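Is this the right way to post structure tokens for a design question? Let me know if I should format differently. Anyway, here goes:
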């Protein structure tokens, strides 16, 4: 009987630890996604300027446009 109680306690503890790890991992993924979105918002105007400058610098008949 005591062994059954110990195994139940071990399983419950393992579930709690796994839940805490999953919570931390999901939080980190959400933070990473917010950082990626912020970087995208910051770089989008720079990329547009770069493309405009490249288009102005390219020769008129350049097929790479």
């Amino acid at each position: 009987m005591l062994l059954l109680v110990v195994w139940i306690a071990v399983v419950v503890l393992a579930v709690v630890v796994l839940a805490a790890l999953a919570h931390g991992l999901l939080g980190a993924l959400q933070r990473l996604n917010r950082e990626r979105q912020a970087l995208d918002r910051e770089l989008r105007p720079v990329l547009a300027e770069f493309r405009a400058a490249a288009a102005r610098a390219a020769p008129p008949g350049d097929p790479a446009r």
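Format looks fine. Someone answered above. Worth noting: Residues 1-53 form one domain. The mean pLDDT is 93.
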